[in-house]
Amino acid sequence: MVKEKLTLSVDKDVIEKAKKIGINISDITERVLRGYTSAERPEGSLYDGYKQLFDSITPLLKEFGVDVKIADTTEQLENDKGELSEWYIDIFLEPDGSFWNDTFETSFQDIKKIDLRTFLSPEKILSNLVDVLAKSEEAKKEKLSEILMAKRIIDAMTETLVKNDFIKTKSKLKEETKVHNAT
Fold first, then answer.
1. What does the DSSP 8-state code read for residue 119?
2. Does some domain include residue 17?
3. Is residue 59 part of a domain?
């Protein structure tokens, strides 16, 4: 296969975060373009387009154990007393392909329950995805570092306790020997 050079402009923060977690932007871009040019086109439905995008994202969410924000809105809602208050509603794509409404803590499967106007742009969803993947990778590294620190502390405690126990046992034996020799 003959490759041709292509110049893309990508947000600097996205590039840095992608590098941190070892994402090869060129490889991903090529795969996306290959998939896009060979994929079945949605029949004019934005829901179908977003569904295809989300289907391609969920394997990464499963692998990293994260979710990604895909929609947000603010709504005026009335309480029991008839008072209006503004609610900020964030919707996340979960690793199992379901959707999570963070404000009302509800999960649902039907993408059409999300108002089309509330979906973030595909670029923003991609940026959010890179952010959560980078944070997940950093969290894993931090947790591993904490585990290794705990191991070193336990090893030091064990070594100290064993050494102290050995010293106590040795001095106890000396005492017993002195008492035994004296009798």
1. B
2. yes
3. yes
